[in-house]
Amino acid sequence: MVTNDYVTIANEKMEDEFIKRHHKHDVKEHQCSSSLVKHIKAHVPAVWSLVRRFDQPQEYKPFVSRCIVQGDVRIGSVREVNVKSGLPATTSTERLELLDDDKHIFGMKIVGGDHRLKNYSSIVTVHPEVIDGRPGTLVIESFVVDVPDGNTEDETCYFVEALIKCNLKSLADVSERLAVQVWAESIDRM
């Protein structure tokens, strides 16, 4: 399933190609998977600077209150995330699986915590695009997760998609504010 906003036919083909190329999940029985797309009116470097920060997800993820990573951030690093109240969890332990600064690909897997997202992994890719004649960014986030006992596949996907949509909306807001700030600073230097 692909959930999308601001879709045009030309963009759909490009998005589908990126999903086929980068968002491959081995979906097993009793799991659900989905891909979500967000178009952001900010340059790729601004968006990627937030997405790649495994040690600071709270910079744009509204449900994260604190994050601790021991040592340097590299593939295999583990972070302990504290979740804000209001969600059915307080902590999540997550491992960095993929971080490619050239191709703008980020992957992580949840390896523990007091929540029901078992065998959860996600991939986020960041791609340049043009929005309203200006440089913008296409962000695609996909995931796979076990369907917990007592829940349906649809319920599980709906819950995870709602969290990701909030994160992507916040990513867009923070990135676009950052882009305006950088633009204003460049004007001031003239």
Q: Enumerate the strands of the largest sheet in spatial order, edge to edge or round the barrel.
A: 1-2-8-7-6-5-4-3
Poorly predicted regions are 1-9
What is the terminal-to-terminal distance? 47 Å
Question: What can be said about the biggest beta sheet?
Answer: 8 strands, mixed
Rg from Cα:
17 Å
Mean pLDDT reading: 89
Total count of helical runs of at least 4 residues: 3
Shape: globular
Give the amount of beta strand, in percent: 35-45%
Strand-pairing-aware structural class: alpha+beta
As a percent range, the share of helical residues equals 25-40%
Number of strands: 8
Task: Summarize the helix and strand pattern as letters.
Answer: EHEHEEEEEEH
Organism: Salix koriyanagi
Pfam families: Polyketide_cyc2
Keywords: Abscisic acid signaling pathway, Cytoplasm, Disulfide bond, Nucleus, Protein phosphatase inhibitor, Receptor
Main location: cytoplasm
Name the features.
190 residues; alpha+beta; eight-stranded mixed beta sheet; 8 strands; globular; disordered N terminus
What features would you describe in this structure?
This protein is an alpha+beta fold. Helix content is 31%, strand content 35%. The protein has helices spanning 9-22, 44-51, 153-188, and strands at 2-3, 31-40, 64-69, 78-83, 91-100, 105-113, 121-131, 134-146. A hairpin with an 8-residue loop joins β3 (64-69) and β4. α2 (44-51) packs across α3. It is globular, with a radius of gyration of 17 Å. It is found in: Cytoplasm; Nucleus. InterPro entries: Plant_def-hormone_signal, Polyketide_cyclase/dehydratase, START-like_dom_sf. Its main location: cytoplasm. One of its GO terms (biological process) is abscisic acid-activated signaling pathway. This is ABSCISIC ACID RECEPTOR PYL3-LIKE.
